[in-house]
Design brief:
Blueprint: H1 3-13, E1 18-19, E2 27-34, E3 44-50, E4 61-65, E5 76-78, E6 86-89, H2 101-114
Antiparallel strand pairs: 1-2, 2-3, 3-4, 4-6, 5-6
Length: 115
């Protein structure tokens, strides 16, 4: 099993539907991710996460579709995933103590809580 496959398996075990069409870029996309907190609470979006070398390196940010912020503000930019995608550069802390997909989901929730 590749590191990417392990990442996808952990996300699926948490109950998420995963789109693997960006596998060649090392990005797994969580479909229908419900934002639970912050000013975007209740919105359902797609969230892309880099997992090519999981669990060695944490994601440095999230790719989201549809866009929820203006590009150029608060480390938000266009995503290489194409039209309709944004990249939110955010640091994931405590990776050395918890290298799991569950920790990454907590990180996503914190990103939206702080947005």
């Amino acid at each position: 099993m590749t590191p990417f496959d392990s990442f996808v398996a952990q996300l699926k075990a948490l109950g998420y539907a995963i789109d693997e069409r960006h596998r060649d870029r090392g990005i797994a996309v969580i479909l229908d991710f419900c934002v639970r907190t912050g000013r975007h609470a209740g919105k359902v979006i797609a969230v892309g996460l880099h997992g090519a070398d999981f669990p060695m390196t944490p994601p440095a940010g999230i790719h989201i579709n549809p866009p929820l912020a203006a590009n150029g503000q608060n480390n938000v930019s266009e995503s290489p995933l194409g039209n309709g995608w944004q990249y939110w550069s955010r640091r994931l802390t405590s990776w050395s103590t918890d290298r799991s997909a569950h920790h990454i989901i907590s990180y996503i929730n914190k990103v939206f809580h702080d947005a």
